[in-house]
Specification:
Layout lengths: L1 H4 L2 H32 L2 H10 L2 H10 L2 H4 L2 H19 L6 H29 L3 H33 L1 H22 L15 H7 L2 H11 L1 H4 L1 H4 L1 H7 L6 H23 L2 H6 L1 H13 L7 H14 L2 H11 L6 H30 L2 H32 L8 E2 L4 E2 L16
Antiparallel strand pairs: 1-2
Helix pairs in contact: 2-3, 2-7, 2-8, 2-9, 4-7, 4-20, 6-7, 6-9, 7-20, 8-9, 8-15, 8-19, 10-20, 11-19, 11-21, 15-18, 17-18, 17-21, 20-21
Length: 424
């Protein structure tokens, strides 16, 4: 992973994203404390917490198109300054609760195009497939660590300096991010055409079999997220103490970080694509073993193994971005991320319903594993056919005709992929 870090532009983008993830979670902690202190209401705290997610889901699909209609460096700088202003306004002592709710929504909506712009811009920075994939590994590992730091460090920071100063520090960090990106990332022209239909990227993606298969792989993550929503009842059912809830929460992300590192260190981009079906199946199959109601140690091990196998999602996301032409990567990335988030949320909710119906968290997790295996097998078979077509140079099947009758797209190499042609 040292290879992508040698690139100045990537270092700036990497630092900006890590700060953004940590800052988002710091803001979440600060607002939860602030709202509960003012109202004493768990309901209000939950509502404000939900507001930190809903704008990303509602705006992620549409606002991601902005990353194709304006220079991406400009999008990142403008969004960072906008978030700094919104979070800075939250830091004003005595701000009305209604205003805080509005500012939360505004800050998250402003951040909606950021991930799409970062993904697309990173693909422009790295044209080598292996280096790009390792850059995504590093981003994924960093984001998981930044999330934990944001939650844990946010509580400590608020306890030390208070809510207003914590939010002020967070706002200032976004301003620094804007400056770093402005100084260290090269300006590039607008990749897309502002006169294009707003959801052109969405239609383009769904018209291509290989991208539909990758989307299906990403949606399967929703089933492997079910244990996360059942951690508390799982700990109770296996006879673990309340302290074990935190360990159970941490097992999956720790396994994910380890799996991502091992894949990045020892497997090439081509090899990782070949393993997608195997790893996706293994992630679900591991959960089936919860039917035996394992003890705490075994449960931690199973969740870690499932998390390690789930690291396949990094390859899915990187391949998806690679196979989309540059002028559509912002909108396509928004589609991918929004679908992933929705699948995760629905999976957690479905797991709760099933666990309540069965009266057992372990059985609900095992059932999620069975469903995951059953659903993954046809996706893996489709992926095998897609890769076979790519390797044989016949990837341009009828449903992969270019936009507006541009004809079938030329197959891309699997190891050293050049930037996709602008015309799709």
């Amino acid at each position: 992973m040292r290879t992508p870090m040698r690139n100045r532009e990537f270092r700036a983008l990497w630092l900006a994203e890590a700060q953004s993830v940590a800052g988002d979670h710091l803001t979440t902690v600060a607002l939860a404390i602030l709202v509960f202190d003012r109202t004493g209401s768990a309901l209000w705290s939950a509502i404000v917490y939900a507001m930190t997610f809903l704008p990303a889901l509602a705006g992620g699909l549409g606002l991601a198109q902005i990353a194709d209609r304006f220079p991406r460096r400009t999008v990142l700088v403008t969004c960072a300054l906008g978030q700094a202003a919104a979070i800075g306004a939250m830091a004003i002592p005595g701000a009305p609760l209604a205003l805080l709710c509005v500012l939360v929504v505004v800050a998250r909506l402003i951040g909606a195009p950021v991930n799409a712009a970062q993904n697309a811009l990173t693909r422009e920075v790295f044209t080598d497939d292996d280096v790009f994939l390792r850059s995504q590994d590093l981003r994924s590992i960093t984001n998981n660590i930044a999330m934990l730091v944001g939650f844990a460090g946010g509580g400590m920071l608020v306890a030390t300096v208070g809510v207003s100063w914590a939010l002020t520090i967070d706002a200032a960090s976004f301003a620094v991010t804007a400056l770093v990106v402005r100084l260290c990332v090269w300006p590039r022209p607008t990749p897309g055409d502002r006169t294009d239909p707003w959801f052109r990227a969405t239609r383009w993606v769904f018209a291509r079999r290989r991208l539909r298969v990758l989307l299906a792989f990403s949606w399967l993550v929703g089933l492997t997220m079910i244990p996360e929503g059942l951690v508390a009842p799982l700990a109770h059912e296996i006879g673990a103490s309340d302290h074990a809830v935190g360990w159970l929460f941490a097992a999956d992300p720790v396994g994910f970080i380890l799996g991502t590192f091992l894949l990045s260190r020892f497997v090439s981009a081509e090899g990782r694509r070949a393993l997608l079906g195997v790893l996706a199946t293994a992630a679900s199959a591991t959960l089936v073993l919860f039917v035996f109601q394992p003890g705490l140690g075994a449960a931690l091990a199973l969740l870690a193994v499932a998390g390690a196998a789930g690291a396949y999602i990094v390859t899915v996301g990187a391949t998806f971005i690679t196979w989309v032409p540059n002028d559509l990567r912002g909108g396509a990335g928004g589609l991918y991320r929004t679908g992933l988030r929705v699948a995760q949320g629905l999976g957690i909710a479905l797991g709760g319903v099933v666990a309540e119906s069965l009266g057992s968290a372990t059985h609900a997790i095992a059932l999620a594993g069975v469903a995951g295996v059953v659903l993954t097998i046809p996706v893996a078979i489709s992926w095998h056919r897609v890769r076979k077509d790519e390797i044989e140079g016949t990837g341009a099947v009828p449903d992969e005709a270019g936009p507006e009758g541009a004809g079938p797209e030329a197959p891309e190499g699997l190891r050293k992929v050049k930037p996709a042609p602008e015309n799709g």
